[in-house]
Design a protein that fits this description.
351 residues; mainly alpha
Length: 351
């Protein structure tokens, strides 16, 4: 009898060690297969965003296969339009940015030297000059690495291009075999937990589905209005700034501040007047006012009601672990955890 507790403890320790080893193996496999996982996540997000169109078609008595074929024809037409008209413009904008990057870095270095000469000779000035010298040295290093960074970005773009080519195939199978996949996953769930887990899954889908589709719409609207506005007032690289602003709008709270930084820098570099920078500030203030008080209330049907502190922590933690995908999926994951935890607190798993 005395050996039973020890056996139980040993069994618990063995189970804990096994769980830790499995998690370590999953982390190692995830790191080794990061490009494959990235392609899968991209395909899953696209399929998740497109599925409501097929569901709507099915409600109108159109078979999923026919609706999927029609959807792919429409997407093919949009792809041809993008490759014919939009891609050359974006490529020229990126080439211009890479070409001008050394000049931007050199200008920042000149400003640092001017600030150094303006520092008065008084207590603490040596520390300030040392700080400026250090900044200048880092700027020189950045200028030397500008080509390397551009090459590295091109390499990543190659892998992303591979994902873009492969994703439509994965998306097709995800959408076509959606019901089969859902039925298979449901069959893996223990029968006494199946009903509650499926109910939680539907609740999570209802909560985060509208968020993800709404966030894509909001990002596109911000990118479009920012690009057009900056183009009108002749700010360099307006499309680059617009796309950056649209991507930054994914970040909660701090995205508004980050989005304006490239536009302010390019405006200052070209004009070096407070009037133009004020115009840029007004443009982004109007865009984000419309986004916050008109666009989001219309687009987002259901709010996830997440605590701001939890939101920031989730974005930082998952962004550190998973990069772009961690930032994009931080809020949906947080919402899913919140919904599941609410059911645990209510005792729904005790039955």
């Amino acid at each position: 009898m005395s050996d039973t507790p020890h056996a139980i403890h040993r069994s618990d320790y063995g189970r804990l060690i096994a769980i830790i080893l499995v998690l370590c193996l999953l982390a190692a496999a995830g790191y080794a297969l990061q490009h494959t996982i990235s392609c899968f996540l991209l395909s899953w997000v696209i399929a998740y965003l497109l599925d409501p169109l097929l569901v709507l078609a099915e409600k109108r008595k159109i078979k999923r296969a026919y609706a999927l074929a029609t959807l792919y024809v429409a997407l093919a037409i949009l792809t041809v339009f993008f490759l014919t008209f939009m891609l050359p413009t974006l490529t020229l904008s990126w080439d211009g940015f890479v070409r001008d990057l050394p000049a931007y870095i050199l200008k920042i270095k000149q400003l640092a030297l001017e600030w150094k000469n303006r520092v008065p000779t008084q207590a603490g000035s040596e520390e300030i000059q040392w700080l400026i010298d250090t900044l200048s040295g880092n700027i020189d290093a950045a200028a030397q690495k500008a080509g390397t960074v551009a090459y590295s970005f091109g390499t990543r773009m190659f892998f992303n291009l591979f994902n873009i080519v492969l994703s439509p195939i994965l998306v097709f199978f995800m959408l076509y075999y959606k019901q089969t996949i859902m039925s298979t996953v449901a069959s893996w769930i223990p029968e006494h937990r199946r009903e509650i887990l499926i109910s939680i899954g539907l609740e999570v889908n209802s909560s985060i589905g509208g968020y993800m589709r709404g966030q894509v719409i909001v990002s596109l609207i911000v990118a479009l209005f920012a690009s057009l506005s900056l183009f009108v007032i002749d700010i360099p690289h307006p499309f680059f700034c617009g796309l950056f602003a649209g991507a930054a709008s994914i970040l909660p709270f701090i995205g508004v501040i980050i989005a304006i930084l490239p536009a302010l820098f390019f405006a200052w570099f070209k004009y070096q007047t407070m009037a133009v920078m004020a115009k840029v500030g007004i443009i982004f203030a109007v865009i984000y006012f419309l986004e916050g008080y008109i666009v989001k209330p219309l687009v987002f049907k259901q709010a996830m009601n997440l605590n701001p502190l939890v939101t920031i922590i989730m974005v930082m933690a998952l962004g550190e672990l998973l990069g772009f995908w961690g930032i994009l999926l931080a809020l949906p994951i947080a919402a899913a955890i919140k919904i599941a935890w609410a059911h645990v607190v209510n005792g729904d798993f005790r039955h």
